[in-house]
Amino acid sequence: MKKAVLNCGTPKELEAKRIVEIKSLSYLERLERLMAHLEVSYMLKTAQKIQSKK
Questions:
Q1: Between 53 and 40, whose confidence is greater?
Q2: Which of 2, 4, 33, 53 is deepest in the core (most CB within 10 A)?
Q3: Exposure pattern of 11-25 as b/e (b: 16+ CB <10 Å)?
Q4: pTM above 0.90, yes or no
Q5: Is 3 left (phi over 0), alpha (psi -120 to 50) or beta?
Q6: pLDDT in tens, 27-51
Q7: What's phi and psi for 3, nearest 5 deg?
Q8: What whole-number distance in Å separates Cα of residue 7 and Cα of residue 47?
Q9: Could you report the per-residue pLDDT of 10-28, keeping only the tens digit for each?
Q10: Cα 40 vs. chain centroid, distance in angstroms?
Q11: Got the DSSP string for 5-53?
Q12: Distances in whole angstroms, Cα of residue 24 to Cα of each of 18, 19, 44, 46, 52
């Protein structure tokens, strides 16, 4: 696994990097990313908020 690197640069540069990264992925990898985003989105939508006792 690659070491995590912080993204520094202008928004245009970062967007160009993301586009290149996504184009380099296979169809299956793109689909896996989409499914992961959908799962997280669903979890956030259905999660119950934890209320702190103050």
A1: 40
A2: 33
A3: eeeeeeeeeeeeeee
A4: no
A5: beta
A6: 999 999 999 999 999 988 888 776 6
A7: -70, 135
A8: 30
A9: 889 989 998 999 899 999 9
A10: 9
A11: ----S-HHHHHHHHHHHHHHS-HHHHHHHHHHHHHHHHHHHHPPPPPP-
A12: 10, 9, 29, 33, 44
On the 0-12 / 13-18 / 19+ scale of CB atoms within 10 A, 6 is exposed
Tokens 């184009």 sit on residue: 23
**Nearest CA among 9, 5, 34 for reference residue 22:** 34
Which structure tokens are listed for 54?
Answer: 């103050």
Which two structure tokens, joined as six digits, stand for 32?
A: 């896996």
